[in-house]
Amino acid sequence: MNIAMRFAAVLVGASLLAGCTSMSESEFNTIPVTLGSPAAKRSVINECVADERTTSQSDKNNLSALMNVSPARYETAFCNRLFNALANGKITYADYRKMLSPSADNSKLIKILQGRY
Q1: pTM strictly above 0.85
Q2: For residues 63 and 78, is the Cβ–Cβ distance under 8 A?
Q3: Is the pLDDT of residue 21 over 50?
Q4: Which residue would you say has higher pLDDT here, 68 or 101?
Q5: Which terminus of the chain, N or C, has fewer Cβ atoms within 10 Å?
Q6: What range does the domain containing 49 cover?
Q7: Which pLDDT band, with edges at 50, 70 and 90, does 20 fall under?
Q8: How far apart are CA 35 and CA 42, in angstroms?
């Protein structure tokens, strides 16, 4: 699974956890507000980590290399970096929509996952 599709799947999963069946711009914009609650953020990150544990070892190896972390730290680093970027407003609805396109520029997402954005 490519990085943009994995990212989009996690975002959709987060919206489903929040009770949304599809993610509109207004629903997306509630994610940073919701993640302002430390308890809600911990809960979403823990759910993300549990979901990412099902990722194949091959994908973990590739993604952890891209992220500059060890495969053992992949799940935690991926989920923390993703949801911290969402909470801080570094990922916009336009960014999310672009990720659904196979020809989109994913450089911003890669920088986020590398902890450089």
Answers
A1: no
A2: yes
A3: no
A4: 68
A5: N
A6: 3-113
A7: very low
A8: 9
Interatomic CA distance for residues 60 and 71, integer angstroms: 6
Which residue is associated with the tokens 């992949």? 74
Q: Are 96 and 23 in contact (CB under 8 A)?
A: yes
Alpha-carbon distance values, 33 to 18, 29, 58, 65, 90 (Å): 12, 7, 35, 31, 13
How far, in whole angstroms, is CA 15 from its chain's centroid?
11
For residue 17, the model assigns a pLDDT of 45
Residue % of the chain over a pLDDT of 70: 80
Look up residue 56 and give its two tokens: 């194949």
Instruction: Classify residue 50 by burial, with Cβ atoms within 10 Å: 0-12, 13-18, 19+.
Output: exposed
Question: Residue 72 and residue 8: Cα distance in Å, rounded?
Answer: 22
How many folded domains does the chain comprise? 1
pLDDT for 16: 43
Report which secondary-structure segment, H or E, holds 59: helix 57-67
Cα 78 to Cα 69: distance, rounded to the nearest angstrom: 9
Contact 7, 51 (CB under 8 A): no
